[in-house]
Fold this protein.
Amino acid sequence: MRRARPACNSDDGQSRERRPPGAVPGRTERTRIVARQDRGDQERDSEFVDKLVHINRVAKVVKGGRRFSFAALVVVGDQRGRVGFGHGKAREVPEAMRKATEAAKRSLIRVPLREGRTLHHDIEGRHGAGKVILRAAAPGTGIIAGGPMRAVFEALGVQDVVAKSLGTSNPYNMVRATFAALKREVSPRYVAAKRSKKVSEILARRSDASSEPGLTAE
């Protein structure tokens, strides 16, 4: 009669012991944990798209002369209603873009979209000498915006919008003014909950206001 061989570890031939709860994991297990964390970070990074808005060379005057570096402005979004912007400075362009991208991911905001393609109502935003006007648009309109605002809408996932920039053409002020406007947008569900009404009542009032001359739906 053949005797059954005891279960053993293929590495050292000894029986595998179960690690008690709360014990420190071994080197192999720590490696697997780090690998899973890296894969999770890569998956989270893959869902975002980044847009380089502006990059310029700056100089800092020091005792020995000038010290040159690059400043980058980047917009990051998931194209499903989340967007953020950030700026970074470094000696090299790739490092400046990396810092700006990380800063943008830390400043993400969520913007409610109507039908996942446009804004719920017309809004305005200001920052410094910059002023922007954002208007909701019908299907098929596309993104009618220029410069930094187009990058914001593409990263946000807006497909139909009409935007106009008034005042300064500084990209930093334009982006900040655009974000100031997006933060003011509210959905009909939020307005209905705040006023203790039904969403259908809010939408009916909006349609009546938009049909009257000289009024816009907000």
